[in-house]
Amino acid sequence: MIDYDSIWRTQDEIRTVVNAVLGECIWNLSYSERRMAIELELTVTLDDDAISNLCCQFPISADYDGLGARGTKIEFAPPKQKLNALIFTSYFTHSKALNPLFYRLTCKQLIISI
Question: What are the chain's domains?
Fold first, then answer.
């Protein structure tokens, strides 16, 4: 079940940070059920340093998501999704060093236990 109250509060925090750091430049701030993440698109395109500075200001984990139709996109994903991505990245990075079948089973057990 999706906790919309928590999502709305998080979106308010995100909007407050963006307005404080960059001024009013939000093009879109919405929750994507498909990605299970809050997506932010700005009306401006930021360079790497500005993106890093902005992402450090948020109270939750933020990742650069590329360029959208209007400007820079940033994603705020829940911790479980980030952990799953880390596990799969680790699997593909280390699969040659370990027995792939054992490692694949270990990854599935970790994801199921989360």
Answer: 4-77 (3.30.980), 80-113 (no CATH)
Q: What is the pTM of this model?
A: 0.67
Decide: 37 and 7 in contact? Cβ < 8 Å. no
Would you call 65 helix, strand, or coil by DSSP? strand
Euclidean distance between CA atoms 29 and 13, whole angstroms:
11
C-alpha to C-alpha distances, 13 to 9, 40, 47, 101, nearest whole angstrom: 6, 12, 23, 43
Q: List, in sequence order, every beta strand (DSSP E) within 18-114.
A: 26-32, 37-42, 63-67, 72-76
Half-sphere exposure of 13 (CA within 13 A, CB side): 15
Spatial contact of 87 and 96, defined as CB atoms under 8 Å apart: no
Each residue's pLDDT tens digit, 15-42: 999 999 999 999 999 999 888 899 999 9
